[in-house]
């Protein structure tokens, strides 16, 4: 597979191939832990994927065969957050969570090893998760002086239920890929050597489906959980579709032509 590199980054890779974008966290020496710079680059890459008309689905993964992502880089954890190059403490991964959920295209986590702490939350916020047999899942916050009471807790509980979510967070145990699949945290487990192949298969099927239908399903599933902000995004797409209709265009045309709009001809569906 000839992935095309779209841009040079320090901490990640952004590549595309036949409608699929692959974003790889590329810090294998620290098990793909993220620092503020990594997150900044991830946000930019997801924004590029949002804009690109030729991208229909995004895969998020980690470099190597050890880790998907081990969460925040403990080497730069300071007072108030993870310290960036300007000395500012940041928790900017929370902005990335929102970006992944808002992206009007499916995002697939391809978990190739440890998904721990903030790295676990990253796969939780993706739409689908395909894992290799060696993948290990778990939260670590209460062990290392952190917690994510946002999507990392409430959305996790939607996947696995409240009792299991509390177990995962209170005990900070690690779970095998098969255990994760059993609790509804993972869609499919495959051997590591066919992980990308399997993920690409899923992506190819997704690419055959109606992009607008996929977009509305993602929005609807989010809206149920996200309150007014979720309804806003679903409603935004309803407006998008309305703008594609002659009925909305009649309103605009009438305004520009300085006449009264004639909406009588449009159907009033039962
Ligand atoms: O909770 C949040 C947030 C909450 C709200 C808002 C924003 C948040 C942002 C982030 C986070 C967090 O992510 S908190 C949780 C941070 N992460 C962790 O607690 C996981 C730390 N890592 C581990 O527990 C283990 O490394 C491991 C279970 C993933 C793997 O263990 P293993 O196989 O024994 O390997 P290990 O030797 O520990 O790690 C390999 C190398 O990777 C080590 O480097 P070396 O000693 O060889 O030089 C290790 O130091 C490095 N490494 C692994 N994880 C991290 C790391 N270095 C920095 N940061 C890491 N997270």
TrEMBL record:
Q: Provide an example Pfam family for this protein.
A: ECH_1
**GO MF annotations in UniProt:** 1,4-dihydroxy-2-naphthoyl-CoA synthase activity
Q: Which GO terms describe its biological process?
A: menaquinone biosynthetic process
Q: Where is this site: Important for catalysis?
A: 82, 243
What Enzyme Commission number(s) appear in the record? 4.1.3.36
Q: Which GO terms describe its cellular component?
A: cytosol
InterPro entries linked: ClpP/crotonase-like_dom_sf (IPR029045), DHNA-CoA_synthase_MenB (IPR010198), Enoyl-CoA_hyd/isom_CS (IPR018376), Enoyl-CoA_hydra/iso (IPR001753), Enoyl-CoA_hydra_C (IPR014748)
Question: Record-annotated residues binding substrate?
Answer: 70-74, 82, 114-118, 146, 243, 258
Which UniProt keywords are listed? Lyase, Menaquinone biosynthesis
Keyword Lyase set for record: yes
Q: Which domain of life is it from?
A: Bacteria
Gene3D superfamilies xrefs: 2-enoyl-CoA Hydratase, Chain A, domain 1, Lyase 2-enoyl-coa Hydratase, Chain A, domain 2
- Pathway per the UniProt entry: Quinol/quinone metabolism; 1,4-dihydroxy-2-naphthoate biosynthesis; 1,4-dihydroxy-2-naphthoate from chorismate: step 6/7; Quinol/quinone metabolism; menaquinone biosynthesis
Catalytically driven reaction(s): 2-succinylbenzoyl-CoA + H(+) = 1,4-dihydroxy-2-naphthoyl-CoA + H2O
- Asked if Lipid metabolism is a keyword of the record, the answer is no
Q: What does this protein do?
A: Converts o-succinylbenzoyl-CoA (OSB-CoA) to 1,4-dihydroxy-2-naphthoyl-CoA (DHNA-CoA).
UniProt similarity note: Belongs to the enoyl-CoA hydratase/isomerase family. MenB subfamily.
HAMAP family xref list:
MenB
Protein name per Swiss-Prot or TrEMBL: 1,4-dihydroxy-2-naphthoyl-CoA synthase
Q: Could you tell me which species this protein originates from? A: Natronoflexus pectinivorans
Q: Which gene encodes it?
A: menB
């Amino acid at each position: 597979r000839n992935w095309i590199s779209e841009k040079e980054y320090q901490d990640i890779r952004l590549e595309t191939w036949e409608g699929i974008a692959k974003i790889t966290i590329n810090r294998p020496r620290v098990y793909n832990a993220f620092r503020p710079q990594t997150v900044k680059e991830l946000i930019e890459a997801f924004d590029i994927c949002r804009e690109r008309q030729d991208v229909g689905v995004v895969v998020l993964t980690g470099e190597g065969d050890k880790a998907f992502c081990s969460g925040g880089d403990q080497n730069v954890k300071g007072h108030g957050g993870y310290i960036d190059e300007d000395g500012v403490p940041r928790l900017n991964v929370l902005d990335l969570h929102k970006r992944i959920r808002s992206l009007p295209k499916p995002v697939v986590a391809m978990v190739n090893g440890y998904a721990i702490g903030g790295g676990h939350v990253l796969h939780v916020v993706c739409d689908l998760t395909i894992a290799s047999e060696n993948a290990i899942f778990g939260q670590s916050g209460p062990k290392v002086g952190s917690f994510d009471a946002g999507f990392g807790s409430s959305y996790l509980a939607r996947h696995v239920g409240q009792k299991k979510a509390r177990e995962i967070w209170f005990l900070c145990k690690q779970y095998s890929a098969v255990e994760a699949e059993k609790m509804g945290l993972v869609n499919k487990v495959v051997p590591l050597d066919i992980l990308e192949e399997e993920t690409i298969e899923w992506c190819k099927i997704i690419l055959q489906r109606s992009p607008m239908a996929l977009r509305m399903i993602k929005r609807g599933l989010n809206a149920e959980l996200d309150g007014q902000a979720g309804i806003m995004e679903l409603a935004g797409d309803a407006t998008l579709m309305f703008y594609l209709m002659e009925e909305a265009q009649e309103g605009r045309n009438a305004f520009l032509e300085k006449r009264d709009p004639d909406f009588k001809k449009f159907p009033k569906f039962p």
